[in-house]
Amino acid sequence: MQDDAVMRFESCGTRVYRIRSQVLPHLVGYVYLLLGNFPPTLIDTGSGEGFSTTDILNGFEQVRTKFGEQFNPQQLERILITHAHIDHAGGASSLSAFLEAEIWIHIYDSRIVAAYEERVAVANISFQRFLTNAGIEREQRSAIIREFGFVKGRCSSTSVARLLRDGDTFDGINVHHVPGHCAGQLCFELQPFLFVGDLILQKTVAQIWPQSLASNAGLINQLASLDKIVKLTSGKQFIALPGHEDIIQNVTERIETVKRTHARRLERVEKYISQSPKPITIAELAKKMYANLPLNRNLLALADVGAYVEYLQQNAVIRVANYEDFEQLQEPIFRYARV
Ligand SMILES: [Zn+2]
Ligand SMILES: [Zn+2]
What we know:
The radius of gyration is 21 Å and the shape is globular. The chain has a domain at 3-124 and 149-250: Ribonuclease Z/Hydroxyacylglutathione hydrolase-like (Metallo-beta-lactamase, Chain A, 4-Layer Sandwich), CATH 3.60.15. It has helices spanning 52-65, 86-89, 92-96, 107-114, 116-134, 138-148, 219-233, 251-275, 282-289, 295-314, and strands at 6-11, 14-24, 27-36, 38-43, 78-80, 102-106, 162-164, 169-170, 173-177, 186-190, 193-197, 239-242, 318-320, 336-338. Strands 1-2-3-4-5-6-7 form a seven-stranded mixed β-sheet. Strands 8-9-10-11-12 form a five-stranded mixed β-sheet, with no helix packed on it. It is α/β, with parallel strands linked by helices and 339 residues long.
């Protein structure tokens, strides 16, 4: 295992072990093992693909051998899921083969874990509609969805033992619902630790999904979620432990930077729409924002631009200029202009 495979944090008797897991071929993720005066708890599951589950099990072993904990993975009572993206929840079923732990997750994301095939089928209809409205040609749509990889058979469904909601509290852990990146995104607060999933990352700005693709996600919710965490952490010393990248020492400062990035991107999208000689589609905007993307990044880029467009529309900055054509069209393409 790599040297940084397991990292330890401690405060007032609570020990937190950050375990590195290769969640996707080009993506490293972290799960967190919490030990202390409460039932042993794991946060997130990795993807269940490649070496992800093995990395986590090896990490448990290191917690015993390298850090001297009397920890037996069979004692693990529960796995709290920050959100149901594959790199955080995809490993739930493969870990269940080794562990007895219950899965706890926000109610909005619970069906992705408990009924994966249903979610894929329903989501693919939304993806098709979104790509159609975005101006992507029919032949390209299925390829874009397939390359994105939210496909049948990729995950096995796993039963969920407890549905979490904003404000839940157990064993000193407070649950905060912070939708935007994902509908059921949660932060788990166990002072001075804040497990933030993908709400904020140390270097990159987390992907935002438009509400048209993922209800309860969207930039409007993400900005409210960021403000909620600023309120929670202001005047207190928190260490934010995210699902990827480094730990975040100054949560408020990082959130201010993330908000400035969103504001800049919104300005860019607005500028392209204002300067376009005719009303413009999301696909055309995505080409301007992200030139030469590989196919497997296409849906992410379109969703990202879609989230900014949606926000500008929700805030009465832009409008759908060609709505009068919709009645004659089976597959309407939305073209945007300034209000
Ligand atoms: Zn995510
Ligand atoms: Zn992630």
